[in-house]
Amino acid sequence: MKTFSLLCLMFFFPSTCNSKFTFPLKIYTGNFNSSVDVDFSSLEKNESSSTNELSLATDPSGKVNFLQMVNNLQGDSGRGYYIEMLLGTPSQTLNILVDTGSSNFAVAGAPDPYITHFFNSKLSSSYHSSGMDVSVRYTQGNWVGKLGTDIVTIPKGPNGTITINVATILQSENFFLPRVNWQGILGLAYKMLARPDSSVEPFFDSLVRQTGIPDMFSLQMCGAGMSASSTWDPLGGGLVMGGIEPTLYKGSIWYTPIKEEWYYQVEVLKLEVGGQNLNLDCQEYNTDKAIVDSGTTLLRLPQNVFNAVVDAIIRTSLIQQFSSGFWTGTTLACWTKGEMLWSIFPKISIYLRGMNASQSFRITIMPQLYIQLMADVDNTLECYRFGIASSTSGLVIGATVMEGFYVTFDRAQKKVGFAVSTCAEKSGSALSEIGGPFLASDVSSNCAKTPAIQEPVLWIISYALMGLCAFILIILVTLLLVPCRHGDDAGGGVTDESSLIHHRFK
Ligand SMILES: *[C@@H]1O[C@H](CO)[C@@H](O)[C@H](O)[C@H]1NC(C)=O
Ligand SMILES: *[C@@H]1O[C@H](CO)[C@@H](O)[C@H](O)[C@H]1NC(C)=O
Ligand SMILES: *[C@@H]1O[C@H](CO)[C@@H](O)[C@H](O)[C@H]1NC(C)=O
Ligand SMILES: *[C@@H]1O[C@H](CO)[C@@H](O)[C@H](O)[C@H]1NC(C)=O
After folding, report:
1. pLDDT per residue over 276-305, tens digit each?
2. In terms of Cα–Cα distance, which of 1, 4, 135, 5 is closest to 460?
3. What CA–CA distance (Å, rounded) separates 110 from 276?
């Protein structure tokens, strides 16, 4: 990968390489038919407790009413979680996918077969086009559109109307999907990932700058255990902008540092399946990065790690008879209704670096989160898919894992926090656990060796190398064309050029 980018940079313009750069968004809407009646009662929030204990402890400015944001998301891991926004003057209502793995705010600007409506910028008096084109590629899908600015309000968000950069999507491929109920995407990652470049201020940066809310947000995603093929979108969770809402989690919040501010990149130290350490070199878990991404449906693992996890699950669960298609995601495994035994599957733990670098903590998901109900056949069979997939672009802590936790993105203090979510519970049993601290002395002090900002750094290195090559070539040519005469004049026999080269090589 690195070698490839380097070669690519040596021979082509950087824009060629740039187009290979994709964001991890990958949504599985499921292709399965269903007549299932899912029991949502266990996921309903305890209204009595959430009204009484509201605390604004983390909102010194007093500008935010978190309670209003507790239920502002709809959707599930299969179709993504979205929030309602009002865009333009007069306002047009749109549902916007919440994606912590990219940094552009973009809305449909033209009709598409899979969406019910789009943002018509011609009807908005506050819309200004910047005239610039923009395109974004995701792991799945891509779009091209026009950059502009307009005003937006979030009915269930911080008070006020803000001016933001917005891309109107004019053409797309595999981006809007069947049965999704959103018409745009809110990239909540850092400006370094903004397209066409980091001068396009991301939505959340604008929101913080213009409303004065604290520079943090948190996410509770509550679709765990629901069939991705149910036809309606339940109340899906909350995007709390500006702070932490104590009624959305139990126990304490455990923090891990953000290694680099582009994606929400974290450092994974260890993986356990059924309490057994996979025992891979910890750098394997972070090749080429490990990120927290609400826009990716599954837990995605680098190929080696994925293979080790599947082997370990097969060993612990003693279910050899599963077809390999189940593990690769092409077939579902079905049980007679009510016969599926969660206890045959192991729990999976991810150890993250603590704020104290010599410590770690672990987040654990139960099989109910990664063996996901997809379809109900004839009311007699229940069919499940494997919620973990392999990845060529690093480890992605996607919705499969995030649904177990209340996840805080504390940009001000450069840390991501995890706590057990109040909605990660089904039929009375917890779907997630969190524990620590553990000593991290058994793992390397840096498991994410490859510098996170490798692309830009590589570009700089490549340009430097290219420059140096050109420079040496010019000197060689000069030396060939002007043979040996300077030797006599300069005494030491060292020309200006060659001393420069000596200097450059030191
Ligand atoms: C689901 O089943 C219904 C009735 O059997 C059928 O009309 C419909 O086309 C099916 N949908 C899909 C996506 O297979
Ligand atoms: C809801 O909260 C009330 C008051 O805190 C508590 O008594 C009750 O047991 C809770 N119910 C559930 C289902 O958690
Ligand atoms: C917005 O302001 C109104 C009136 O001041 C207040 O009642 C409401 O709670 C505020 N909403 C938020 C999200 O802060
Ligand atoms: C960090 O953790 C180590 C190991 O538990 C402990 O000895 C040390 O005191 C901690 N450092 C701080 C600053 O808390």
Report:
1. 999 999 999 999 899 999 999 899 999 999
2. 5
3. 51
Segment (H or E) for 257: strand 249-257
Asked if residue 114 has pLDDT above 70, the reply is: yes
Identify the band that residue 227 occupies on the pLDDT scale cut at 50, 70 and 90.
Answer: low
Q: Is 65 in the pocket of ligand 3 (CB under 6 A)?
A: yes
Give the pLDDT score at 340: 77
Strand, coil or helix: what is 234? coil
For ligand 3, whether the C-beta of 61 sits within 6 Å is no
- List, in order, residues 6 or more apart from 15 with CB less than 8 Å away: none
Q: Mean pLDDT across the chain, nearest whole number?
A: 80
DSSP strand pairing (216-221 vs 405-410): antiparallel
Q: Which residues are catalytic?
A: 99, 293
What type of residue sits at position 73? L
Cβ-proximal residues to 463 (8 Å cutoff; 6+ apart), any chain: 9
Q: Minimal CA–CA distance to 182: which of 283, 104, 73, 100?
A: 73
Whose Cα sits closest to atom 13 in ligand 4? 356
Q: What percent of the chain has pLDDT over 90?
A: 56
pTM > 0.85: yes or no:
no
Q: Which two tokens stand for residue 463?
A: 């340009």
Residue whose CA is at the smallest distance from ligand 2 atom 2: 49
Instruction: Write the Ramachandran bin of 102: left for phi over 0, alpha for psi from -120 to 50, otherwise beta.
Output: beta
Q: Is 187 helix (H, G, I), strand (E, B) or coil?
A: strand
